[in-house]
Structure prediction request, 699 residues.
Amino acid sequence: MPIGSVILAFIIGALIVAVTGANPFDAYSGLLCGGFGIACSQGENPALQLSNTVVFMIPLLTTGVAVALPFRAGLFNIGAEGQLLAGSVACTAIGIKFAGLPAPVLIPMVLIGGMLAGALWAGVAGVLKATVGAHEVVTTIMLNYVAQWLVRYLIIGGPLQLAPGTSRSSPIGVNAQLPTLLPADNSLIIFGLPASVFRVHWGLAIALAAVGAFAFLLWRTSLGYEIRAVGQSQKAARYAGVSVRRTIIVTMLIAGAFSGLAGAIQISGVDHSLTDKYFSDTTGFDAIAVALLGLGSAVGIILAAVLFGALHSGGAIMQSDSGISSNLVLVLQALILFSIAANFVGQIARLIPGIRRPQALPPELPPAAPLMTEAAAPPPEPA
Amino acid sequence: MTALGDILHLLFTANLWQAALAAAVLLLLPALGGVISERSGVVNIAMEGMMLTGAFFAVVANLAWHNVWLATGVAMLSGALMASIHAIVSIRFRADQIVSGIAINIFAAGLTVFLVNRIYGVQDIGHVGQSELLPNINVPGLDQIPFFGKVLFQQNVIVYVALILLVLMHLLLFRTRLGLRIRSVGEHPQAADTAGINVYAIRYGAVITSGLLSGLAGAFLAIGVSNTFVPNMTDGRGYIALAAMIFGKWTPFGAFVACLIFGLGQAIYDNNSIIHVSPYLLSMLPYLLTLVVLAGLVGRSTPPAADGLPYVAGSE
Prediction:
């Protein structure tokens, strides 16, 4: 089914390209070349393209998990972006402040700091949901924008700004940087290019481990059981002795930690400083597509992250080779979301009950609590 | 303390309130769209995308035909077209309305820049001539009233239109039979259906109306407040409108009050150089205030009961 959604999206995307007077084959061969190093017409290096795809894929893995895990509990985390930004801010701040520490101490510090910041960001939404029933979709949207403006403040005129007039932070210490898989050595030639151009870093291993941890947590621990139980039916979960409130908060904290890890890895492994690129970052929204397309499973998330990593990497090559805007990638992504949501959401909903909102009120909440759930009282009529 | 005094002084100037009202209207139009859509039971977080689409097509049409009214109409239609995608996907196909809304926003962001590139080749779309912008209109006589004349009667044409739409939306929802139907469909579609109301038709109409209103806001932004289109120029305004809708407890006038608060904040920042607070920190305020409201610290805010639930005819 997900493959069908992707194919349908590419067909509609081709029509849009054709209608606007460009050649869809040029567009898609550019994407294929940029994404997987296949069918390159301008002599691009296939190994470099694959390396770029992997670099784009890494944050999608952990943010994909950050969306998929709350789905299982019946929560829709569209705040992965804000949580990621919180994580990258924490990583940058720690990486600058403690630049003198040795790498074996500092790298875990920036990564854990990023996870804690992400958890804090998501935790706000979790606590509001569990205590007053504020819908997590709305609260996470608001938190996304708070994070986005916070980043702008910090690096334009704020305490992390590199120098007046710039819109970037100081670089983090060398010891806070995740090493690349290949040595950053220009004299070493691999696949016909200096080894330093291949930017794949050890964050790949961390992100894959995080996906593994997600699967283990969900299927092999009692917390995972509780998360799934809450997602299936809050009422039944409660009869089984599960604290729905606690599970909601813990789920959001863990999800936020995964997103925050993505942000920390991006800073530590790729960018090494917080830049204006982060204002328009969309990883947290791509993650929603990754989680939905991957049907919320670990293997599915990895496959979907490969696809979206390839699309991002391919967009740049498509634009330079065929002159078609890399924004076509966003169009394709939206089309994939539409076709999953419109045609297959029923199937997905049966696999992941989490997509639906919870059907019942947790009774431990006071009956008069202002809840944003179906069972809440209707809005008062204006006099 | 002089800074505080300066702000107080500023609060008594007509210029400030004139700017605040214009900024509020930019948020009010999509917020009204959100109110009618969610009152009918369709969650709509797609105002951002519909507004952006409207802004883009307003500029395209204006550059092509040099007619600001035609351009505004095209903007509204393009917003409605985006809305009808959301409507079809979420009403006909019963898709998750939040996923569909996110998809609309991503679609609009990608498609507008993609089309700039296809139609104009370069990144720069070009500018609309000063004479072809949505005009400011001074209401003869009334605009001479001290203070209020400037605030209320020396405004852009869209400001008057939006204020009329605000009153009409309130009357529609709470004083007409159709409004009762819209609300009943949002609260209890099964009961409404039993009473002979066409749930689907009402919901399609409400969602498409939200697109028309958001498209109009897009036109005001691109060929009223500004004179060109830049990528992602809505910059979260559609989401602030969503916040205003929640802040205003899903009522037109409640949303308007929220828009005024947000607009006033914007105007205070634009009109003075005394406050040495980062504009970026100030920009967080609408979102933080909404979180405070959601936390129940300023009274509860509850959506329509069937908001977000697809309706299946004959279901329980």
Q: What stands out?
A: DSSP finds 13 helices and two strands in chain A. The radius of gyration of chain A is 22 Å.
